[in-house]
């Protein structure tokens, strides 16, 4: 951690508890070495922590931070203390040699024990081990030995104990008056500013179950900060959405990304059942949903060629992942259901139109067949079924059918239709298209061939015998004359 690596005590090479006289002597000594372009290695700067480049200015600056009691206490909370010379000095000697494992074992044996079931628990803080709680905490924060959460809790336990007064007297002037609660809050605040969200979440979960003086104030202060940040980001997104509904989806996506960490931090502190969490989570979800709705409505009004229903759906689902209260959840659910319907409206409209064509054809076919079968036949009379089939085929105005298809299923709808994920709807659409196309003439098919998007592109349509029968006689007559002329020319 930077607050340990760059600690003023480390810069001047001293432990917490060094007297003013020791501090003055050490600073003079350091400046003499630096002016001689040397750096002593026999002090308590502990090279294992990382590179430390000392200059006259950095030493002077560190010394100034150890003159004011408040700054000195802040530095002491994150540095080693020789509170028990018999035990601690052996650990410090090991640290000077870079042997962190030995130092850790010395302090760990004094602070923890292992039960018969293998569970490690804290020992009681006593006259013998109180400084070990603080020092083991600092070492764990530097080296990641042991659990990070345990390192923080070890120092909280120490601050909470009756022995912490010894630390205060060693670190600052006897006139310094600050409560344990304030010191704990300061320690936690500084820690929180220097750790990532995953460690933060684990730490807060543990502290929620642990009683200490600053617990209530700590939770309150750390709850309010993420709430304020989330509300500020909601307001920013709202202003962007109102300024440009076309960019509302971008505002919603940015809000989801920007507020995610704050919401996770809030959840780790107070949990999802707390009314403060529910309230701000629902505000966040509702604004993201509104961005989705405004974008969809704007795109629909403008006739956008984007797959705006799918884009709006993705944003609505992000809102759904955040919502905590029933009202917000229900509103989002209703919007998602509406978007689901709108997302597939092109194929739904196509199926409805094609089904109406097939339905009308099947109805006419049934009625014509019924009339034919009901007609009385004289002796030796039979039904001319070819003529009946022709009557059935001509029972619909297929040119009007082509116009209907072109209006209800324009070419720009095909990309959306073929990307539909509902396989049942796709199969139904293909079946209806196949049926309708089978009833059209060669020339009629070419006008709406785009609706058969699954057929090979560039495939040359070959007229079938059925297509030829549907060609008007005058066209056949003209074509025959043209062919005859070509043959005569060929013979000449």
Counting DSSP E segments of at least 2 residues, the number of strands comes to 2
Strand order of the largest sheet: 1-2
Q: With helices defined by DSSP (H or I, 4 residues minimum), what is the helix count?
A: 25
Kindly give the count of domains.
4
Biggest sheet overview: 2 strands, antiparallel
In whole angstroms, how far apart are the ends?
Answer: 101 Å
Helix content: 55-70%
Contiguous low-pLDDT stretches (5 residues minimum) are: none
Write down the overall geometry. Answer: rod-shaped
Q: For the residues shown, what is the average pLDDT?
A: 86
CA-atom Rg in angstroms: 41 Å
The H-and-E topology, N to C, reads as HHHHHHHEEHHHHHHHHHHHHHHHHHH
Class by helix and strand content? mainly alpha
Strand-residue proportion:
under 5%
């Amino acid at each position: 951690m930077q607050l340990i690596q760059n600690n003023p005590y480390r810069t001047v090479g001293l432990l917490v508890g060094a007297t003013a006289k020791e501090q003055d002597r050490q600073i003079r000594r350091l400046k003499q070495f630096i002016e001689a372009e040397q750096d002593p290695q026999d002090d308590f700067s502990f090279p294992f922590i990382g590179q430390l480049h000392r200059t006259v200015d950095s030493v002077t600056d560190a010394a100034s931070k150890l003159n004011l009691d408040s700054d000195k206490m802040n530095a002491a909370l994150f540095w080693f203390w020789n509170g028990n010379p018999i035990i601690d000095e052996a650990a410090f000697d090991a640290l000077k040699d870079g042997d962190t494992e030995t130092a850790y074992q010395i302090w760990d044996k004094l602070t923890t024990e292992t039960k018969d079931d293998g569970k490690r628990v804290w020992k009681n803080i006593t006259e013998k081990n109180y400084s070990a709680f603080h020092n083991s905490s600092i070492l764990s924060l530097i080296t990641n030995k042991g659990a990070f959460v345990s390192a923080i809790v070890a120092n909280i336990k120490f601050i909470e104990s009756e022995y912490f007064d010894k630390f205060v007297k060693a670190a600052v002037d006897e006139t310094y008056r600050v409560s344990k609660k304030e010191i704990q809050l300061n320690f936690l605040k500084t820690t929180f500013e220097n750790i990532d969200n995953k460690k933060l979440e684990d730490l807060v979960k543990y502290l929620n179950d642990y009683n200490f003086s600053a617990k209530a104030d700590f939770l309150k202060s750390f709850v309010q900060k993420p709430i304020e940040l989330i509300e500020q980001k909601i307001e920013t997104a709202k202003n962007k959405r109102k300024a440009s509904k076309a960019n509302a989806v971008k505002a919603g996506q940015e809000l989801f990304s920007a507020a995610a960490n704050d919401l996770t931090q809030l959840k780790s502190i107070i949990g999802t059942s707390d009314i403060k969490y529910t309230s701000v989570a629902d505000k966040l979800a509702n604004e993201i949903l509104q961005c989705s709705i405004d974008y969809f409505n704007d795109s629909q009004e403008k006739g956008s060629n984007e797959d705006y229903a799918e884009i709006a759906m993705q944003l609505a689902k992000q809102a759904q992942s955040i919502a905590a209260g029933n009202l917000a959840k229900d509103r989002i659910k209703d919007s998602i259901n509406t978007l689901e319907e709108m997302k597939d409206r092109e194929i739904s409209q196509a199926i409805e139109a094609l089904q109406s064509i097939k339905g009308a054809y099947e109805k006419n076919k049934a009625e014509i067949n019924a009339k034919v079968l009901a007609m009385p036949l004289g002796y030796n009379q039979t039904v001319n079924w070819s003529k009946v089939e022709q009557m059935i085929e001509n029972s619909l105005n297929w040119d009007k059918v082509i116009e209907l298809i072109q209006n209800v299923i324009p070419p720009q709808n095909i990309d959306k239709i073929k990307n539909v994920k509902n396989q049942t709807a796709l199969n139904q659409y293909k079946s209806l298209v196949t049926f309708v196309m089978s009833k059209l003439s060669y020339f009629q098919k070419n006008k709406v061939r785009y609706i058969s998007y699954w057929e090979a592109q560039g495939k040359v349509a070959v007229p079938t015998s059925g297509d030829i029968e549907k060609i008007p006689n005058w066209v056949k007559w003209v074509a025959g004359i043209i062919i005859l002329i070509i043959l005569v020319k060929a013979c000449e």
